[in-house]
Design brief:
This protein is mainly beta. The protein has 4 helices and 20 strands. The strands form 4 sheets. Strands 2, 3, 4, 5, 6, 7, 8, 10, 11, 12, 17, 18, 19 and 20 form a 14-stranded antiparallel β-sheet that branches. Strands 1-9 form a two-stranded antiparallel sheet. It has a two-stranded parallel sheet with strand order 13-16.
Length: 406
């Protein structure tokens, strides 16, 4: 009996010691386990060390403070030239014309927030009807990528045309105001690779992710995807649709690749001036044209226009059974605008290659303490062509930015 009691006491003390040891181990484990903030700091130190290891510190400085908040003021310019040919001008009957859509220079203010070379920005126009721009960018020692979305509506256009009729030549030029706006939307995606990424940084002049300490240059390889859409298919723009050979919408997709060169000039400590030029050739060029039909038509010899009755939009016929009605001879007669009707009647898609485009960039930045200021400009030219239809698009902007590192 006494032996059993002694054994029970020993087991009790052993269990108590084991529980105490487990408790101690648990406390030690809890004390040694890093917190969430400590883990985040460890990840940040790892990323910082990795970023600094990829560059030559004599040429490029990686700031200790990784976060940046940037306030930006931007002026954007867009010019769309659309030219086409109707009839057979070489035979003396037809038209050659060019429509230019050039919205007023758009002023916007926005903010960029990011960590190291990755961030997102949003810009809002300072005036009405100038659209909205959203962009996302990321940069590293040897790469960079930028995505920009833009959309706006406009009513103004410039028309330049030459009309050939029975051996006679007439010129019709002037500014026009469309009754319904033209909707223009674009997507710009650009990526590049830096061959001399240890000593040259494109980001030093354009988003100040790093600081260029000495002058250096590098060859660059780039690729660009550009998508745009022009929509003027509103019934009130039927005259424009007819002048465009029954075209109401155009969607253009283009992929480009190229080789260029960039150079960072550092005249004084903290200042960097960049220039970059990259000619590109399209490897993918797709133009989709949406055709429209209308209950009115442009005719040379106009007949009577008062016996058509009412238009039936369901059967696409007038009351007298005809499908198209000539425009009124009286230019002051605008009653037909209330009867006009247009609808999509099919589409045409064309693929072509070897279009030469150009990407030009200029940038300057000044860094002091944890602050920086920069000015950048970029110019892009895109060309599309389908038969006798040609579209030139010029897209450029200038930006002033002020930021702080956190």
């Amino acid at each position: 009996m006494i032996g059993r009691m002694i054994i029970c006491c020993l087991l009790f003390f052993l269990n108590a010691a084991a529980q105490e040891q487990n408790t101690t181990d648990s406390v030690i484990t809890q004390e040694s386990k890093p917190s969430l903030m400590e883990r985040l700091h460890q990840v940040q130190r790892y990323l910082d060390d990795k970023a600094k290891a990829k560059v030559d510190p004599h040429y490029i400085e990686v700031p200790d403070k990784p976060w940046r908040v940037v306030l930006c003021y931007k002026e954007s310019v867009l010019d769309v030239d659309y030219s086409n040919v109707g009839g057979d001008p070489s035979a003396g009957n037809g038209i050659e014309y060019q429509m230019c859509f050039e919205p007023p220079m758009a002023s916007s203010i926005g903010m960029w927030v990011g960590y190291r070379g990755t961030g997102i920005s949003f810009a809002k126009s300072l005036r009405k009807k100038e659209g909205t721009t959203l962009s996302f960018s990321t940069t590293g020692a040897k790469y960079g990528a930028n995505l920009r979305l833009r959309g706006f509506d406009m009513n103004d256009m410039t028309l330049t045309s030459t009309i050939y009729e029975d051996g006679e030549v007439y010129n019709l030029n002037g500014n026009g105001h469309l009754v319904a706006p033209v909707s223009i939307a674009s997507l710009y995606l650009n990526g590049y690779y830096v061959f001399n990424g240890r000593r040259y940084s494109q980001a030093a002049a354009y988003n100040q992710a790093v600081i260029q300490r000495r002058s250096a240059g590098s060859l660059l390889a780039g690729a660009t995807l550009y998508m745009s859409a022009f929509d003027f298919s509103d019934d009130r723009n039927t005259t424009m649709i007819l002048l465009s050979r029954n075209t109401g919408r155009i969607k253009m997709h283009q992929g480009n690749i190229g080789i260029g060169y960039g150079y960072n000039w550092v005249p004084l400590r903290g200042i960097v001036v960049n220039a970059m030029a990259m000619p590109t050739v399209s490897f993918y060029n797709r133009v989709k044209v949406y055709k429209y039909d209308c209950n009115y038509e442009l005719v040379t010899a106009k007949g009577p226009t008062d016996d058509y009755g009412e238009w039936n939009p369901e059967t696409h016929t007038w009351a007298n059974g005809k499908t198209h009605r000539p425009f009124p001879e009286d230019d002051n007669d605008t009653t037909w605008l209330d009867e006009i009707d247009s609808w999509e009647a099919g589409s045409e898609t064309d693929y072509s290659m070897l279009r030469l485009n150009l990407d030009l960039r200029l940038g300057i930045a000044y860094n002091w303490s944890n602050y920086f200021i920069g000015a950048q400009a970029q110019f892009n030219n895109f060309t599309y062509k389908k038969d006798q239809c040609k579209v030139n698009l010029y897209d450029a902007y200038a930006r002033l930015s002020f930021g702080v590192r956190l």
